[in-house]
Write a structure and sequence with these properties.
alpha/beta, Rossmann fold, six-stranded parallel beta sheet, 9 helices, 45% helix, 23% strand, globular
Length: 199
């Protein structure tokens, strides 16, 4: 598409990965999603020589497993979950939840969310014809998703952020995408961005 025409960006957020980003700040900060989405547009504009005014995040989707209401209430999570959802709504993010399951040992299983994330991302890209798709994820399972999205002639961008330096992003996923936005490296060269992109 010529750079003098409007171009669309679809953003897809792996909720478990997004939670790890915030956990990496150890309670001292949290991601300012509105600022992050604006940064994504500016970065794509800069890297691809496209007028910022012609780039739009036309859809943003968030996927996560969560407890049923009674379990969330017993764990005192209802207020925090509602507060987080308010933030998603304020930023026009469409959220998709699947109930968490408990295994026989009492652990928690987040089953099917990654598959749902991948299927939805592919289907929406196919029908919406996004010019750019941004994956906020670190899951190796999304390597094939990135490959399939490229087959649709979509520019696939992986955005990763690892404040705690836990090396939680799959190397294979990073190698498969068209562009990797490594927030750790970018902030290392411009520390003022940390203030801009967090609350």
């Amino acid at each position: 598409m010529p750079h003098n025409e409007n171009q669309s960006i679809g953003v897809f957020i792996d909720g478990g990965y997004y939670a790890k980003i915030n956990e990496g700040f150890a309670g001292t900060r949290e991601v300012n999603l509105r600022a992050l989405l604006d940064f994504i547009c500016r970065k794509i504009s800069q890297d691809n020589g496209i007028d910022r005014k012609r780039l739009y995040v036309t859809e943003c989707h968030y996927y996560r497993g969560r407890y049923r209401a009674n379990e969330a209430k017993s764990k005192n999570l209802l207020y925090e979950e509602r507060k987080f959802e308010d933030m998603l709504i304020e930023n026009d993010v469409i959220f998709h939840y699947k109930h968490l399951r408990t295994d026989p040992k009492g652990g928690v299983i987040e089953k099917g969310v990654d598959t749902w994330f991948a299927l939805d991302t592919y289907e929406m890209t196919l029908f919406r014809e996004f010019d750019f798709v941004v994956l906020i994820s670190g899951d190796a399972d999304h390597e094939m998703l990135a490959r399939k999205l490229k087959a649709l002639k979509t520019h696939v961008i992986l955005l990763t952020w690892d404040p705690a330096n836990t090396a939680s992003t799959s190397r294979f996923l990073k190698e498969e995408v068209c562009t990797h936005i490594d927030m750790n490296s970018i902030i290392a060269t411009d520390s003022s961005l940390l203030q801009t992109l967090t609350l």
